[in-house]
Every structure is written in structure tokens, then in C-alpha cells.
Design goal:
Elements lengths: L7 E4 L15 H16 L4 E6 L8 E11 L5 H4 L7 E12 L8 H15 L6 E5 L3 H9 L3 E3 L2 E8 H10 L3
Parallel strand pairs: 4-5
Antiparallel strand pairs: 1-2, 2-3, 3-4, 5-7, 6-7
Length: about 170
């Protein structure tokens, strides 16, 4: 069943992308992709991106991006020391990220995460960091393996400073 085409990640197109078979094992994420993601995109509440293996239009993974803010008091003091003294700072929320259970073990989660980070870096909207709300300890561990830091008072909320995202891609270019 393997496709030789390189996986692609693109904005959700509800008319073209088949979301009906997606199952990551977390009902809330499955339901979100199947019934809410299109509405969120149309209402500009979130930008859902989907992973496909052409020529198939079946979604095998997805993530969402949206603007958010973070209270400076929530961030670690060493980071806040270097920032303007604003009570609220701009950030980007990586709201959801999931891979179909049948596609696990193929590094698609990392592929989706790196794509999200790259898009955030290219955005013209100011953002201090990428914020994620991990659903559970397993999700939090995934983000920690990708060098996200837990917010001191909210262990399931993690962040990665945009300066580190920039280094990630600058250092990886030949």
C-alpha cells in the first residue's frame, strides 16, 4: 500500500481532502478533523494543515495554527528578563497535531511539527514563541523530545521560543 510519492502538507480543502477515515485514537482529535476543522478554517479561527501521500487525498495527519498570547508572568524569568515589559506577549498556538494510527512509526508527527515550525517562522505576524497544549504526558514527551519547554505553572503547556525555531532552520541549511 506504499506510495512512492513524497508526502505533502497543505491547507485543508474540505471539498478535496478525505477526512472520513482518519483515526488517531483520540476521539476529540478525530472528531475535530472530521467535523470542526473546516468550520474553523472558514471562520478564520484556525488554519488546519493536512498531510497526504499523493495521489491519495486521504488525510493521514494534521495540525492547526492560530494566533494566541501568553502572559509574561507565565514564562520562565530568564526569558522574561530579555523581553519588553508587556504583560501579554504574542505567540502562535499549535493547537492540534495528530497522525492516523495506521501511519505511526513513519516520523509523520515530526514531519508535521517541523512544517508547522517552518510556517511560523515564515509568518509576517509577530510571535515570541510556539505554544502547545499537550493532551497528556505522551504528547508532552513528544514536544520535549523536540526541545519544547514546559511552562513552570502549567506542565501540559509547552513552548519553544521563536529564536530557537530560527536557529533550528538556519543551522540545518547547507
Amino acid at each position: 500500500m506504499g506510495s512512492t510519492a513524497k508526502p505533502v502538507i497543505e491547507l485543508l480543502d474540505t471539498a478535496r481532502h478525505d477526512r472520513s477515515q482518519f483515526s488517531c485514537g483520540v476521539e476529540a482529535l478525530d472528531r475535530y478533523l472530521q467535523s470542526q476543522a473546516g468550520q474553523d478554517a472558514r471562520r478564520r479561527v484556525a488554519a488546519p494543515y493536512v498531510l497526504l501521500e499523493p495521489p491519495s487525498t486521504t488525510v493521514i495527519g494534521f495540525y492547526t495554527l492560530s494566533n494566541t498570547s501568553v502572559q509574561s508572568a507565565e514564562l520562565p524569568p530568564p526569558l522574561v528578563k530579555k523581553l519588553p515589559r508587556y504583560p501579554t506577549l504574542p505567540a502562535t498556538l499549535l493547537g492540534r497535531l495528530a497522525v492516523d494510527a495506521k501511519q505511526r512509526g513513519k516520523a509523520f508527527g515530526t514531519l508535521l511539527l517541523l512544517d508547522a515550525l517552518r510556517r511560523c517562522l515564515r509568518s509576517e505576524t509577530a510571535s515570541l514563541a510556539i505554544i502547545v497544549d499537550a493532551k497528556d504526558d505522551m504528547a508532552a514527551s513528544f514536544y520535549e523530545r523536540h526541545e519544547f519547554y514546559r511552562l513552570p505553572d502549567q506542565p501540559n503547556r509547552l513552548f519553544k521560543p521563536m529564536a530557537e525555531v530560527e536557529k533550528l532552520f538556519v543551522d540545518s541549511t547547507p
